[in-house]
Every structure is written in structure tokens, then in C-alpha cells.
Amino acid sequence: MRAILLLLLAVAVQARTVLVVTADAPDFVLAAGGAIAAMAAAGDRVVLVRVTNDDKDSWNLSPEETASRVKGEVERAAKLLGIAQVHSLGYRAGELGGVSPTEIRDRILFYVRLLKPDAMLIPNPYAEYVEVLDRHYTGMAAEEARRIAALANHQPPFAEAGLSTHVVKELFYYAQPFDPRRREAESTATFAPQPKVVDIGSTFDRKLLAAQALQTINYSMAMRIRKRLDDTARRLPLLDVVNEDSVRKLVEINVRKLGEIAARESAYKLAEEFFYSGPDFQVPAKLR
Amino acid sequence: MKAALLLCTTLTFAQQLPLATIPPGKTMMVIQPHHDDHTTDYGMGGLIARFTGAGYQSWFIRSSNDEKDGAHGYPHNDMYNLRESEAATKILGMKGVYSLNWRNDYMDAIPLLELRAQIILLIRKHRPDAVLGHDPWGHYDRNPDHRKVARAMAEAVWMAGLANVHPEHLELGLQPHRVPHLFLKARVDYGRGHRPNVAVELNEDQVRRKQKAYVAHRNVYASPGMARSIRAQLQAEGLAVPEFAGKTDDEAAVLIEEWYMDWISRKRGSENGVKYAEVYWQRREFDYLPGLTDYLNANVVNR
Questions:
Q1: Domain boundaries, chain A
Q2: What is the ipTM of this complex?
Q3: If you compute the radius of gyration of chain B from its CA atoms, what whole number of angstroms results?
Q4: CATH architecture assigned to A16-287
Q5: Kind and range of the H or E run holding A246
Q6: Is the preceding peptide bond at B28 cis, omega within 30 degrees of 0?
Q7: Which of A144, A244, B56, B103 is deepest in the core (most CB within 10 A)?
């Protein structure tokens, strides 16, 4: 009994708080769902901050209906991954380019100081996204929030309200879709995040279920593929009938292949890729 | 020695880019800030000529008013540059120019979403199968207009396909349209930004049209002063260029610019195993779904 209590205590002591920041609903699931599920399974308390309301990406649904449905679906996906809480900032999707970067940053900063995470997973602001630049804006804001969370002169009112400064020890940058330069290490004297490939073999099933829970966006993806093929006199037999089964199958093919691509040149079959900065992140290389 | 030669040959070929084909379609748009961005040394005149030669109807969206560029001062530069831009697009076989007229070199401060909305409207009107533009990740591109328009274009090409983005456009009878193919100016010098992933082979006629389109911008290129100073330098060094004989400074300047465009096209060609080329970062229709591209390529069939 005593041994069990000691074991539980050891787990509790090692358990971390992990803050995941995502621009849109599918980003954190597709790029980091397996790693998140593994962290949660290991006892970490994982919290999600979702920056946009995903009101645009749907098929024949109004923005209001879309945002409402996706909110429920994200919460289901998060639960499947073991995420304990979801906080939505509610910015309109695709419009972060018109929002003050400082405003987004300080709203994320609030959660960093409130939750005091040991690790953060954020969109890589430097990945060469071609389309959904909300990922870039979110990544920039989250990266800055992580940095200034440690500096008392940023947002003094937060301190007045009891939100003290905090150093986040670990940072994982993820990219959805893949950054074409994701295997190239960045390097400067003081800042050297390195490519990190994480095995998701044991959590892939949960990641897949979470991805499939995003039904509104998945249906939209399937219908857009179908429309493009119809417009160019082509067909994909799987999408001759677009229904729940065919969309689930399409998502499975997508999620599995993403895992295989990330696992290339590694010892794993299914993986996710990150840029990673560990606890020595704060220390200039010459002083380590 | 043989092994070294083989290695050199292998390395040379390893660096060559695949040759792009013109995607099937009918309509193409070039979306850039300035009057001359569609005809400069990094492209895109040759590729435009290939598109129009393949039967594409194409339009040039010029986002700025180009008031700063040229020797006539503003507002005169605006008109000179517009006229020359129209002339260049005609040489390349394009249908016309849309001028959005944002203030030249002041675009960093303009509302991104407003510019994007204009581009989305034009995309929905013309429904292009391909768009050509600057790279939104060219951080080291020092021109603020290039950066701004590239970002607006990169968002517009896919957001135009979402009915919930500017639903008011649908009241005009326009339908959502996602642009399937994208050719971006690729980074070929330093820094980040998409590296070229394709070379576009050009024939003699396409290179000639590219040259003519470039020198159509006489307000900013082919300055007689440039030819005059080159001639003076040559004379000071006791050298002569036979092709300059009997030519005015105006004519010599045009010749120099045409040589430059010929040289850069040959250089890109020789790097990629053909006579003439331009290089781009191309995004194909389903590249935005990297987990599905192999599956779609293997399973999509014609009706």
C-alpha cells in the first residue's frame, strides 16, 4: 500500500502541465494529436487554447452554424486525446491578419501565467505555410507570449490580479501541414530548437478518433475534393458517395499517411515531427 | 578521373529541377504589386507566355499605383507605368490589367483584409486555374509591397473557395472558387522562402516575348543613360561591342536589357538541362493535403 502511494506520489510529482495553442480546430490534432495523447496518458495535465472559432470551413453551413458545430467537435476531439480543458479565444477564422498581434499575444499570455505550464506546443510561426496564415499569426503570438511570460514588466495588471511571471521550460513547435524545411536545424548562439521526431504508434488510434471527430471540417474537405474532381471530369471512387463512412475512411488515409511521412528516416512506423527546445533553452550555448 | 567526372555529372543532374508542365485549364491570373513584376528577371514573362500560348486567358492584377517608380514624378509615373504595363501584358498575350491603385511603397500599412477582399472578388469573377505571384515567405524581400501582396494573395487563393468568406459576393451570382495551381517566385539566393521545386522550359519565341515585355517598361528600364555610361566605360578601357555600332543610346539600352533577359533565361536553363528556363515554387492542386496526395494521385480516374 505504501509502495503504491509512493508510486502515485512520484507520478504526481513528475506530472507536468502542458499548454497547447492552436489556430484552427484540426491543426493540433493532425500535427500533434499523438504526442498530446501520450502526454495525457502519462499523467500530464493538458490544456488547449484555441484561437479562432473556425466559422468559415464548412459545406453549405452558415458561419454561425459552423462555429457552433465545430466548437462541440473540438471539445470531443480534445477529450479523446485526454485534454483536460479547452479555452476558445473566439477570433473569426481567417481574419487574424487584421487583429492586433499584441492583443492575441496578451490573451495567450494570460493563460501562460494562469496555468504555469511546463511545456507548450505551438504552431511554428516560421513554417512556410502557403495558405492558412492564421497558423503563422498564432505561432508568432504564442511564441512571444511564452517569452514575455517570464518578464514582469509585461502586463503589470496581470501581476496585480495574482498572475505571477512564469518560465516555460519546454517548447514544441508543430506545423500543419508539414514545413518543407522541417528537418533543417535552426541555429544561432542562443536559440537552437532542433528537429524532434516522436513515436505515436501507441496513441495513433486515439489521434485518428480525434481527427474523425472533426466532422464538419472533414466533410468540407471531402466535398471540396469531390467538387474539384467533378469540375475537371474526374472521380475518386471512395467519394462517389460522400457520407459518414467515406469521410471517416478519407480521414484515416490522411492521418495515417501524415504519420508515415513524419516517421521517414526514423525508427518509427508512425510519428509526429516538431522543433523542440528543452530546459536548456534559456541558456546560451557557450554557457551550457 | 572517370569516377570524379561521373560524380560531377551525378551532382549536376541531382541539382536539376523537374520540368513543370502547364496544368490543364483555361484561366490564369498574375497577382503582384507593381507594373513590372510580371516581366522581371526572376520571371514571370516566359511562364506567362507559355500559359497564353497554351490557350489560357490571363489577367494581371497590379495592386499598387506605381507612383514612385520612374523619372516622371507622380502623378505622371502612375499613367506611364500603367500604359507600359498594358503594353507588356499584350506582348505576353494577356487579356488585360486590373489596377487596384494602392499607394506605391506604402502598402505595409494598408489593411491586409481589405486588399485580400479585392483579390478574392477578382478570383471569384475569373475563376483562375492558376495564379502566379510573389512568395509570402520571402522574408528578405525588402520591398514592403511585395510582402503585403504576397500574403494577401496566399490567403485569397484558398479563402475564395469558402462560401462563408465574403458571402456578399454570392449576391452578385459569383460562386466560391479555390485556385488549384500556384506558381510562386522562388528564392534562389539566400535566406528562407520556398526553394524552387520546378523549372519551366521556355522556347525561343517565349524568351523573345519575355525580352520585349521587359523592355516595354521604358519608364524604369532600358535607360539611355545606362547605355551611355557603359559605352563611356568601354571606350575608356579601349574596348568596343560590335553590336552597338550605329545604334543610339536608346537602342543600345534596349539591346543590353534584352541580353540580360536572354542571359538569365539561359542560366536557369543550363542549370536545369535545357536551353532556356525560369524556376518557381509550384503548388499543385492537392499539395495542401500532403497526407492525401499519393492516394489521390493513385486513385483518381477520369469520368
A1: 16-287
A2: 0.89
A3: 21
A4: 3-Layer(aba) Sandwich (3.40)
A5: helix A244-263
A6: no
A7: B56
> Which among A95, A131, A233 has the least Cβ separation from residue B158?
A131
Count contacts between A and B (CB, < 8 Å): 107
Assess contact for B226 and B57: CB atoms under 8 A. no
Closest of A137, A129, A132 to residue A21, by C-alpha: A137
Distances (CA, A) of A177 to A7, A31, A124, B193: 39, 7, 11, 16
DSSP-assigned beta bridge partners for residue A88: A50
pLDDT tens sequence across A237-256: 999 999 999 999 999 999 99
* A66 interaction partners in chain B (CB closer than 8 Å): 164
- The radius of gyration computed from the CA coordinates of chain A, to the nearest angstrom, equals 20
Straight-line distance from the first to the last Cα atom of chain A, in angstroms, rounded to the nearest whole number? 42
Q: How far is residue B50's CA from residue B301's CA, in Å, rounded to a whole number?
A: 27
Per-residue model confidence (pLDDT) at position A7:
55
| Cβ-based neighbours of A80, under 8 Å, separated by 6 or more | A37, A206, A209, A210, A213
Cell of B11: 551532382
**pLDDT tier for residue B256 given thresholds of 50, 70 and 90:** very high
Indicate which of B140, B183, B292, B302 best probes the interface with A, i.e. most A CBs within 10 Å of its own CB. B292
Tell me the C-alpha distance between A121 and B256, whole Å.
54
CB B153 within 8 A of CB B52: no
Q: Where are the domains of chain B?
A: 18-216+259-287
| pLDDT tens profile B21-64 | 999 999 999 999 999 988 887 779 999 999 999 999 999 999 99
Q: Which residue of B has its CA nearest to A60?
A: B163
C-alpha cell recorded at residue B197: 521545386
User: Which grid cell is A264?
Assistant: 521517414
Backbone angles phi, psi at B99, to 5 degrees: -105, 120
Fold exhibited by the domain B18-216+259-287: Rossmann fold (3.40.50)
Residue from B107, B281, B300 to probe the interface with A (highest A Cβ count within 10 Å): B300
